[in-house]
Amino acid sequence: MHDLYDRASYEPEGYRCMSTGRIQFAEQNGTFVLKFVGEVRLTLCSALDATIEKIFTALNFSAIVIDLTETRSIDSTTLGLLAKLSILSRQKVGLLPTVVTTHADITRLLQSMGFDQVFNIVDQPLACPGSLADLPSQDQSEEVVKAKVLEAHRILMGLNESNREEFHDLVSALERG
Fold it and tell me: Under a CB-based contact definition with an 8 Å cutoff, are residues 56 and 92 in contact?
């Protein structure tokens, strides 16, 4: 069933042996940093969504940076939650988050998904705080995971027509249950 959720993911050549990923988080001087390492997939989305909620409950930040410089693959559910983060940031504080990516293939994926409209995308690494900590894993029921996947893909569909076409069948299947 999880294969159905991973419709749009990117995995550069040479990283197929990697089986784990993690998301790290830090807050320093009003900047929230989320660093994605390795293969970032559906299994990390509950922790990511909880962190997004935490960020917007605090509302005490001046910047949000998403560091994808060590990301080897990222699935569409994760991308949808990142789009949610950007939308909430613009709505609640009028801030456009920054995505840092040094991989041309990931940059192309982000642009094809419409992320250049909802993020500042930069290709130069930024200084990362030394206090990054792994987000704790969160076990969720299949229904909760399904709801997050559905929300993430609806958000992606709202970014552009290409995404609408790409994820229409998946969203329809999830809505049918």
Answer: yes
3-class SS string, 81-139 = HHHHHHHHHHHHHCCCCEEECCCHHHHHHHHHCCHHHCCEEECCCCCCCCCCEECCCCC
> For 129-158, what is the mean pLDDT?
90
Q: Domain spans of the chain?
A: 2-176
Closest to 146 measured CA to CA, from 62, 42, 24:
42
Which residues lie across from 22 on neighbouring strands?
A: 37
> What pLDDT shows up at residue 126?
82
Distance CA 38, CA 29 (A): 27
The answer to whether 53 and 135 are in contact (CB under 8 A) is no
Report residue 137 CA to chain centroid gap: 16
- Which CATH number is associated with domain 2-176? 3.30.750.24
